[in-house]
């Protein structure tokens, strides 16, 4: 895409995910101004210096550790602040802590960047995206969760390894919760338009129930596997964030499985969930109501039920965290 020289991006949260997203964004030359805000000022200043020292190799960008006032008139505000999963914790376990953190962030973002697009990444991302939507009062098109963009890349990786093909040629989605109830949409999975079962036959590879089970398990448990070994996941989510930002700024009209407000989707309403959506300069251009197989519809509903339960137990009737 053409690099936009007057684009301002703010990242709230300079932890592993925020810093890696910043790295991916400046490497791609997506912003002319990048502001990072975190309660840990010293760490943020360190990250900003380290990123800025790459100036000799990247497009000019003014990177700053700032206060909320410095984020004024951001085009996109990325939220990566909050507690991260520890070994043995699910994403849902983070909900109360991270809703409280979001309550301190969103009013500041709204005050200084009322026309921005909010990209929520902190977990549990579907719940926090809904809370950000409620707290901000922004139109639903401008509050986006990173959803299952990362999980879908993990799915492409797992399939590509088994079929010995470029992961970018694998067309597929993980849909639903970014979490334990997420599921692969096998019914639509193809390799550059060739149905996956036909492709596997052609490539002399196995494609059966065991294949699907193993791949699904590996994708679902991917974050746990990484966290067990290195404490956090950040490279692939950093690239996922960069990809969503690039799609917005480039007005790409590309399809990504982000977390969006669901309305009348297989009978599901008023919840944020990862589904394929068209992304452009105004955020969500359109949520795609795709044809799912019967078992996939059931899985989507299960995902929605779990998230509805978490939302109900985390929010009081007026939408504020309890
Ligand atoms: N959506 C996804 O696919 C995905 C993938 C990986 C991680 N995550 C989530 O992203 C979040 C960040 O993960 P991480 O590994 O960077 O965690 P981290 O602990 O490394 O960083 C979190 C940062 O948030 C800051 N912070 C805390 N409260 C704040 C506040 N009120 N205002 C500003 N900053 C605040 C902390 O000081 C810290 O620097 C977690 O919730 C994690 O679960 C999401």
Automatic annotation (TrEMBL):
Which residues are annotated as modified residue Phosphotyrosine in the UniProt record?
224
Name any one GO molecular function. Answer: L-lactate dehydrogenase (NAD+) activity
Please describe the quaternary structure of this protein. Answer: Homotetramer.
**Family according to the record:** Belongs to the LDH/MDH superfamily. LDH family.
EC numbers for this chain: 1.1.1.27
Give the residues annotated as active site. 178 (proton acceptor)
- Name under which the protein is recorded: L-lactate dehydrogenase
Q: Which GO terms describe its cellular component?
A: cytoplasm
Residues binding NAD(+) are 13-18, 38, 43, 68, 82-83, 98, 104, 121-123, 146
Supply the source organism's classification: Bacteria, Bacillati, Bacillota, Tissierellia, Tissierellales
């Amino acid at each position: 895409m053409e690099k936009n020289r007057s684009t301002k991006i703010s990242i709230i949260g300079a932890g592993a995910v925020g810093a890696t997203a910043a790295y991916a964004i400046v490497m791609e030359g997506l912003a002319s101004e990048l502001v990072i805000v975190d309660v840990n000022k010293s760490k943020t200043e360190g990250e900003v210096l380290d990123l800025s020292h790459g100036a000799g190799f990247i497009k000019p960008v003014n990177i700053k550790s700032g206060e909320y006032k410095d984020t004024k008139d951001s085009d996109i505000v990325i939220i990566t602040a909050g507690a991260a999963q520890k070994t043995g914790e699910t994403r849902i376990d983070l909900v109360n802590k991270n809703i409280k953190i979001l309550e301190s962030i969103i009013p500041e973002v709204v005050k200084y960047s009322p026309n921005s697009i909010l990209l929520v990444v902190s977990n549990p991302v579907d719940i926090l995206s809904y809370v950000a939507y409620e707290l901000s009062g922004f139109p639903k098109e401008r509050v986006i969760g990173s959803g299952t963009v990362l999980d879908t890349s993990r799915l492409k990786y797992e399939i590509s390894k088994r079929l010995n093909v470029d992961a970018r040629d694998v067309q597929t989605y993980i849909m639903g919760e970014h979490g334990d109830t997420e599921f692969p949409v096998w019914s639509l999975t193809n390799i550059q338009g060739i149905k996956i079962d036909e492709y596997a036959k052609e490539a002399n590879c196995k494609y059966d129930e065991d294949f699907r089970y193993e791949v699904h398990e590996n994708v679902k448990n991917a974050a746990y596997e990484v966290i067990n070994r290195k404490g956090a996941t950040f490279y692939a989510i950093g690239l996922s964030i960069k990809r969503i930002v690039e799609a917005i700024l480039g007005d790409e009209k590309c399809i990504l499985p982000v977390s969006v407000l669901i309305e009348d989707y297989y009978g599901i309403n008023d919840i944020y969930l990862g589904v394929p959506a068209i992304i452009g300069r105004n955020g969500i251009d359109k949520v795609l109501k795709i044809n799912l197989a019967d078992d996939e519809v059931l899985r989507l509903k299960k995902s929605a039920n779990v998230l509805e339960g978490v939302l109900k137990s985390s929010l009081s009737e007026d939408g504020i965290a309890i």
